Amino acid sequence: MRLHWKLILTYTFVVVLVVASVHLYLDRAMRAFLVGQLGDTLTREVRLAGAYLRRDLSDRPPPETLDGLADLLGQRLGVRATVTDGTGRVLGDSEVRLEDLAGLESHADRPEIREAWSGRMGRSLRYSATLKQEMLYVAEVVPGVGDGRVVMRLAMPVRDVGQIQKRIYGAVWVVSALVLALVLALAYGGSRFVSRPIVGMTQMARAVASGDFTGQTRVPGGSVRELRDLAGALDGMRRQIQERIGQITVEKSRLEVVLDSITEGMLVTDRDGHVQMTNRAFERLFGTTGCAEGRLPVELVRSGEVQEAIERTLATGKETTQGMTLPGVPERHLDVHIAPILREDACIGSVTVFYDITELLRLERVRKDFVANVSHELRTPLTAIKGCAETLVERALADREVAERFVQTILSQSDRLQHLLDDLLDLSRLESGKLELASEVCPIRRVVETGVGSVVQRAEEKEIAIHLDVPEEVEVRCDPKLIEQTLINLLDNAVKYTPNGGSVRVVVRPFAGTDSGSERSIPYTSPEAGERPVLDGEGAEARIVLEVTDTGIGISSDALPRVFERFYRVDKGRSRAMGGTGLGLSIVRHIVEAHGERVYARSELGKGSTFGFTLPVVV
Ligand code: ADP
C-alpha cells in the first residue's frame, strides 16, 4: 500500500476514533450537565413554590385550593406541579383535573417523594406513565403546611435536554467533518511531502542497484531534517559505492592485465570447483574462447587427472602438482601446479598454473644430444691423433716415410679439431643470443667477391668454375662479416659436394616471393619448432635473394629438410672425409635468422643444389 494511502487511512481512523469518543463522552457528560442544570432550576423553583404555598395556605387547605395552586404554579413556571399529602395522595396536580385526582394512585412509592420525606431534596429522572415521556422530578417537603409531610413536586420533561443535545451534536458533527477533511488534506499533503523525497531516494537506490551512478548528483531530502539526513547518508553511500566499484574495477582490470601478461596459463575456480576466470595464455594453450566462467575445469582442460587434482586441493587445502600432456603437433608437456586460495583457514577457491615445459624438455634433449654429438665428433679426430702418436712412439719414428704420413694425419686431424671447435664457438655465440649484429650498408657485390675469394683456390683445385651474376649497384643492410661467413659456408659446401669439373653460380636477384613455391624448392623447416616459415611477397621490393647453385651431387628430398640441423650430414663418411663438421648450414641458418631473414634450399639428387637467403635492400 502506498504511503499516502496508509497515512490517510490511519488519520481517518484516528479522527473517527476521536470524534466517536468525544461524541460518547459528550453524550453522557452533556446530558448529565443539562439534567443537573434542569434539576438545579427545578430545585430553586420547588423552594420558591414551597415558600409560596406556605405563605398563602392554612394548615389544612382544601383540596381544590391546592390543585388550583398547582395549576397556577405549573402554568407560571411552565412545569408540572404536584402537591401530595403525608400519605402520598395527590392533592393537586397541574396536569390532572381536580375531579380526576381521586383516581390517581398513591405517590408514596415515588423515589423523589420518599427522598423528600427523609428530609432531603428528592430528585428522580424517569419515564412518566401519566405523561408518557421522560421527566425530571424534584420534590421537597413544605414545612409548616398540613401534617408537615406535604410535598411540593415539580417536574419537567427532559425532551428539551435531548433537543439541546441534538443541536450541539449537529455543530459537533459539522466541526468533526471539517476537522476530518482538514486532517485528510493535511495527511495527503504531508504524505506527498514525505513520500516525494522517499520516491527520489528509492529511484536513486534502484539506479545504484542497477549500476547507474551517473543519474543524480544529489538525492532530494526535502525540508524534513530526518529525511535530509537520510538522503545525505544515502548520497554518501552512493558515492562510496561508486568509489569502491571504481577501485574494484581498476583493480580487476589491473589484475586482468597482470594475469594476461603472465605467460603461464592460469585458471581460477571458486570453492565448488567452477571456473571463475582464465587468462589469455590459458586460452591460447587450450584453444578456449571466452565463456569459461561457471564451467568445470575438465571441460576446458580435458584432463580427468587435473580435474581430480583441483578437487583434491579444494578438499584438503593443500598444494598439488600434476603433469599432463596436450595432444597435438607438436605434443606439449605441461607442469600443472594447483594452489588453494585460503581465507581464515578455509579453502575458498583454487589457482591452477600450467607451465609449458615442452621447450624446456626440448632444450634438455637438445643439450644431451649436443653433448653426445660433440663428444662423438671430438672423439674421432682425437682417437686418430692418439692412434698415430702411439704408433709413432712405438715404432714408426724410425721409418721416416711412415712417420711423415702419421704426422700428416695428426696435422689434418688437428685442423679438423680446430675447425670443429671454431664452428662450435661460432654456433654457441650465435645461439647464445648475445651476438651484436652490425647494421651496415654495403654493396652486395663486394660481400660476394670476398666470399668467393676464400674458396676460389679449392675450386680451382677441383676445376670448378664459379660464375657470378651479381649486380654492381645493389646495396644491402647487414652485418657484412657474418654474411660473408654465410656465403663462405655455402660456397664451401657447393665446392665440396660438386665433383671435379662442375660449376657453381652465385646469383643475386630481387626477391619475388615465390622462392618457396616451386615444386622442387624446400624452404627451411625448423625441425625443433616444427614451423614452416613462409616466404611470402611481403616487402618483396625491399629484398634481394642471394643464391648459391651448384651442379653437385644434390640432396635427396628426405634429407633436404634436415640439412640445417646441427651435426646433420647426409653422408657422414663423405662429409668427414671432406673435413665437414655438420655445423656449417646450422651456422648459416642462425646468421640469417639473426638478421630476421629466411634461408631455404632446393635440390635434386644427382643434379645439384641451390641454397639461398634473403637480405634487405637499401633503396
Ligand atoms: P658439413 O660440414 O658436413 O658440410 P653442413 O652443415 O654444411 O655440414 O651441411 C650438412 C649436410 O648437408 C652435409 O653433410 C651434406 O650432406 C649436405 N650438403 C650441404 N651442402 C650441400 C651441397 N651443396 N650439395 C650436396 N649436399 C650438401
Protein traits:
binds adenosine-5'-diphosphate; five-stranded antiparallel sheet; 16 helices; 619 residues; alpha+beta
Give a brief description.
With 619 residues, this protein is α+β, with helices and mostly antiparallel strands. It has 16 helices and 18 strands.
Describe this structure in words.
The protein is 51% helix and 19% strand. The protein is built from 16 helices and 18 strands. The strands form four sheets. Strands 12-14-16-18-17-15 form a six-stranded mixed β-sheet. It has a five-stranded antiparallel β-sheet with strand order 2-1-5-4-3. The chain starts with a helix and ends with a strand. The model is unreliable at 515-541 (pLDDT under 50). The protein binds adenosine-5'-diphosphate (ADP).
What is the topological layout?
Elements: H1 3-56, H2 63-77, E1 80-84, E2 90-93, H3 98-101, H4 111-117, E3 122-128, E4 133-141, E5 151-157, H5 159-209, H6 225-261, E6 265-270, E7 275-278, H7 280-286, H8 297-301, H9 304-316, E8 320-326, E9 332-343, E10 346-356, H10 358-396, H11 400-432, E11 440-443, H12 444-453, H13 456-461, E12 465-469, E13 475-478, H14 480-496, E14 503-510, E15 521-523, E16 543-550, H15 572-577, H16 584-594, E17 599-604, E18 608-616
Parallel strand pairs: 12-14
Antiparallel strand pairs: 1-2, 1-5, 3-4, 4-5, 6-7, 6-10, 8-9, 9-10, 11-13, 14-16, 15-17, 16-18, 17-18
The structure holds adenosine-5'-diphosphate.
